[in-house]
Specification:
alpha/beta; 9-stranded mixed beta sheet; 6 helices
Length: 223
């Protein structure tokens, strides 16, 4: 399967690219012009700015699946830390994707736990956090992005992970019902689950999924 990956040099995107290449998919990885990393040799690396409509139009066609691991970046983890990305980055890129990608291409992308109807499944401290500073800016960007993709009427899946963490894959990512301050899921597991959905290993018919860590014997609680 031909897969286009946006944000391929990021912490989730790099996991996805490696896993997809290992499974034998035809992967095109979009990275920033200054990227100097070394993806797997079978991966086609294209350097450019996804905020440029001409570039996005040129790279989007001909792929059965488009995966976006983009998100707003801040200088630090503090909610009021200055943004390093345009405040409308995701909504602009996703709006472009649904215009330029093939009409039957499935769009799978990383949103966030607490966006859309998953807001009601978060705890009060989480709801307070996602209204704060530039965290709130990022969430508003994702809300509009989800709306633009939904209104385009194409196959799509918004993956809404709980708090992201590092570490090797555990193989225990899956849909969860609740999200609290202590809820975490590893980026490597998010990437693996997204790829499982993309290649049909895992069935998912929902347009948006709150994704967390599923424990043996049941869904992990939002501690």
């Amino acid at each position: 399967m031909r897969i286009l990956v946006l944000g391929a040099s990021g912490r989730c995107g790099s996991h996805f690219v490696r896993l997809a290449a290992r499974r034998g998919h035809d992967v095109t990885a979009i990275v920033l012009p200054g990227f100097r990393g070394k993806p797997p040799g079978s991966v086609t690396v294209v350097r450019g700015e996804v905020t440029d409509p001409g570039f996005l139009a040129a790279v989007s066609s001909g792929h059965a699946t488009v995966v976006s691991c983009l998100g707003l970046r801040r200088a630090t983890l503090l909610p009021w830390s200055r943004l390093l990305s345009p405040p409308t980055l995701v909504q602009d890129v996703m709006g472009g994707l649904v215009r330029y990608a093939a009409a039957d291409a499935r769009v799978i992308w990383i949103s966030a736990g607490g966006v859309g109807d998953s807001r009601e499944r978060t705890s009060f401290p989480v709801r307070a956090l996602i209204r704060a500073g530039h965290v709130g800016t990022a969430y508003e960007d994702l809300v509009i992005a989800e709306r633009r993709v939904r209104d385009a009427g194409r196959p799509w899946l918004a993956v809404r992970p709980v708090t992201l963490a590092g570490g090797p894959r555990t193989g225990r990512a899956g849909p969860v019902e609740r999200y609290g301050l202590a809820s975490v899921v590893r980026r490597s597991d998010v990437a693996s689950w997204m790829l499982d959905v993309a290649d049909g290993t895992v069935a998912c018919t929902e347009p948006a999924v709150l994704l967390g860590t599923v424990r043996r014997g049941g869904v992990s609680p939002a501690e």
